[in-house]
Amino acid sequence: MKTFSMTMMTLVLFVFACVASAGDSPQFRGPNRDGKFDEQGLMKQWPDGGPPVAWIAKGLGKGYASASVANGKIYVPGMMENQNAFIFVLNADGAIEKKISYGKETVDQQAPGPRSTPTIDGDRLYILSGLGVVTCINLAKGEKLWDVNILERFGAKNNQWTLAESLLVDGDRVICTPGGPYAGIAALNKMTGETIWATKGLSDMASYCSPTIIDHKGRRILLTETSKLVVGIDAAAGALLWTHDHPTEYDIHAVTPIYNNGLVYFTGGYGSGGGALELSHDGSAVTAKWTDKNLDCQHHGVVLVDGYLYGTGHKNGQLMCLEMATGKLMWSTKEVRQGAVVYADGMLYAYEGPKTGIVDLVKAVSTGFERAGKFSVTEGDDKHWAHPAIANKRLYIRHGDALIAYDIAAK
Asked: Taking the CB of the first residue and of the last residue of the chain, which one, N or C, has fewer CB atoms within 10 A?
């Protein structure tokens, strides 16, 4: 009986832990890095002026990284004076509890400050600076555990506007993109920072893309984009499987590829557009399935919902919907201009920038554009470029030195 009671208690605690963390967003663009957030019970229509503001936190410094939310805390990186960068730790009410130093950040004129969204893994946080330094922080102790300059270690050069990749934690590894002759992609031991594997035969310079890992017929493949290529890597060994040429102006690739039913979708801005690659049965090769010039998404993310892709174009500045299987344009609208697009509970959230700061709520349907609300972000400063995050029925918008939390729970 005692054993049964202990077993039941363990089960209850496990279930409670799962429920407590179900609404978290511990990394860039949601729990699965795909722009989709695991939230239910959200508003399907906003009142005039948008959803109510729960709180506003100010004094977060310069930066364009999104907020990460995990275990009742909110983590936002920001750069203060003299390039000094910190992870600001906020509680659920928006109060800044502490800030943790992680070194220096980029002063790039286009986007000074951190652009890498922190990745939370248990009691550790991982972040890449624009200067190429991967840092691991112990959140319980509030201190740096290790750091590695991946540009120096792997003989790579920084790109034109400095690195903006959000790190991927995969098991005992932290995946990053040095983009050098000794490591196009690299996996570091998440506990020590030591190199586990490095991809040879891929010397294309890193761009601004955050990698993802997909499962294709039982094979785990790492997908990303470098300056000129769409890339597939064996996730276990780090071996290069295939590349696909996709040149863009200024070598800007900043949209994580999307996988569905054997197809890999990719895109870039400046009119380069995108397309779909069909993976071979074992994932070791690709063939072009279709191409598209409509959705030339620059750095604002694309989401896949029920077989349809949603995102904003760069040159035409329109929100649009493509059919993933064929690339067919289902609809487009000038009602929503270029902006970061994410998804939750049947709805798209589009945060327009860099100047307007308009946030649109749109139904995620392939039949046509249906807006369900809009408002303007007026707090904060500088460009509207950070991707929104959604967690625990709140929409988090980072705008310069401010983080605004909106209550988007259905009433």
From this structure: N
User: Among residues 364, 365, 359, 367, which one has the least CA distance to residue 405?
Assistant: 359
The class of domain 24-407 in CATH terms is: mainly beta
Which residues fall within 8 angstroms of residue 352, CB to CB, at 6 or more apart? 336, 337, 338, 339, 358, 359, 360, 384
Sheet containing 212-216, strands listed edge to edge, beginning at the edge strand earlier in sequence: 212-216, 219-225, 229-234, 240-245
The token pair that represents 337 in the structure block = 């201009």
- Burial code of 101-120, b = ≥16 C-beta within 10 A, e = fewer? ebbebbebeebbbbbbbbbb
pLDDT, tens only, 348-403 = 999 999 999 999 999 999 999 999 999 999 999 999 999 999 999 999 999 999 99
**Cα–Cα distances in Å, from 226 out to 126, 177, 250, 377, 404?**
21, 8, 12, 32, 32
CA distance 123 to 137: 8
Query: 245: how many CB neighbours lie within 10 A of its CB?
Result: 7
d(CA 248, CA 242): 19
Burial 63-87 (b: 16+ CB within 10 A, else e): bbbbbbbbeeebbbbbbbeebebbb
φ, ψ of residue 207 in degrees (nearest 5): -105, -130
Percent of the chain's residues with pLDDT above 90:
93
Read off the pLDDT of each residue in 179-183 and give the average, rounded to a whole number: 90
What phi, psi does 21 have (nearest 5°)?
-105, 5
pTM, two decimal places: 0.94
Distance of CA 223 to the CA centre of its chain: 14
Q: Which three-class secondary structure state does DSSP give residue 13? A: helix
Domain ranges in the chain?
24-407
How is residue 332 written in tokens?
Answer: 């487009």
Please say whether the beta carbons of 152 and 99 come within 8 A.
Answer: no
- Backbone phi and psi for residue 387, each to the nearest 5 degrees, phi listed first: -75, 140
